[in-house]
Please model this.
Amino acid sequence: MDTMKPTQKPPQMADDIYTVSASKKEEIALRSKYTKAKFTSYDVEYIGLTIFSWVMALWFAWHMVAQVLMAKNIAFSVMGYDVLSNYDNFAMNYVWEGVILGDAVFPSKHTLYWKIAFLVFFVPLTYLEFRKTISTHKDAYRVAWHQLFKWNAFMNYIVIAASIYVCGSLYEWDYFYMWIALPFVHFTIWGFHDLFKYVLPIFVPGVYLNVINDNEETATYYEFMKVATTGAYGAGIDLGFNLYDSGLPTEDYTRSPFEAQQAKFHHAFEKLDLKKGMKVIDIGCGMGDWLYWLKNEKDCKVIGLNITMGHADVVEDRGIPCLRGSWQSFLAKVEAGDKEFIGRYCNQFDCVTCWDTIEHYVKGKDVWNVKVIKKTYRDLFKLAHSLLDKNSECGSFWSSTLHQSRRLETNPLKYRFWLEWGNCYIMNCMYNGMYPTDIPTGSVCKGLKERASPQFKLKYESDRIEDYRMTSIINPNHFGNFTVEVNLRFLYQTFVEFLAHPHAGIVWFNAMWRPECCWMWHVGGIKTEIAPDCPTKLLWQAFEFDRNVDSFADDAEEAEPKA
Model:
């Protein structure tokens, strides 16, 4: 590279990369001015919006039932009062045509009054919602409106339009049957696409057809999760799991979420040989609980990196700077010799961490592509090594990553085959990724520890899969097995999800209606004891770097098994 090498010590970096800029602080202060007191106008608004959301949800359910009954000419009367006819006359003729649409260009005085009442009721609510959802705040978070203008959303618009045309043609534009068929046709079109995305590469690795941006799909789901669960940061529940010392003499499931999360952070801090005041960068930092703890409990200088804009907003709102984009995009800057990036970030940190994020780095379409798998994990270690200060007394890399621990069923005549591969398909529709393996022999993917050399060597490893499983079982707001809190922002984000996420229907089917969702299946199930055939391990791994090795040195040639 025609630039300074990352292994060379650049001039001392200004500490301002560890602080949020003054303009950003002003923006954060403006965002949070309604949320500093214990009970403010925001709380009143939030309670009101939540009640309103439930009222609207109940009305919508009633409206759909009423439309079906009227379409089938089924009468519904209470004490001689024709409920359906009067509701239809009020809702459609009076409210919709009279109040909302108006019966003339210049409506009558009577209709004008109703229009004013309608605007007085809805406009302030809409204004308050958009004012709040521009940024983050303490209970529910910003709705990701920007996703409606992403590539995946436009691909989905095309499929939605095609589905409407197909359904209309099949049912001669009979809306009743047409809208029932629509989700099935939509799923069929994307399912046909997914045959070429996921099935074809099994037989011809590296060959696939894909019109979806996989990173966007991952980010879209995490934006949905952000508003579907409350307390997703700052209260002991993050996008990973908590430590209960499952299976150890110190096992303790009575720990509060906050206590269990603190135990996790203390454990990692110790195993990494971190010390107060050190510098840490977290790749895939979620909403910043780990970084916030390091900054406030250990006086560390910290910075995050995230592809999900809503998460990056939260991190910066907490006073922690966050690089926005994929780690691969920043690796490209180093490889291209970007002097500004190299000078500010390379050879600067005492520790690089990846908490429960490496699972997303290789996508499902590449599960049999040995070349891509190896390059991805090797590139990650190269980037981590280039970021570490070669004079650091710590020089560690941390990985908390699910690993596949056994092979899946291969006999299509068995129910287990369809259950396991079906769950894997749903996992990819939601999270989009694949796991490195911890299978002793013949593994295509291999584990991270086999890809770390020559930059790193493993110094600590522990399987924490039962802690992960129990975190989801104990905590109803943990993403793995969550209970939705319905509020107006959740309904808004659901609207965005169904337009921007090609597989939103699958997401809802899995998250809302399955007793054991695909996530819980793959971490050991929902029964009292972990399933003996659990297909994964959750490996905590601490690696120490070799300060004398070039960050971009290749590993030794190795014989790869055929896919």
In short: The chain has a mean pLDDT of 82.
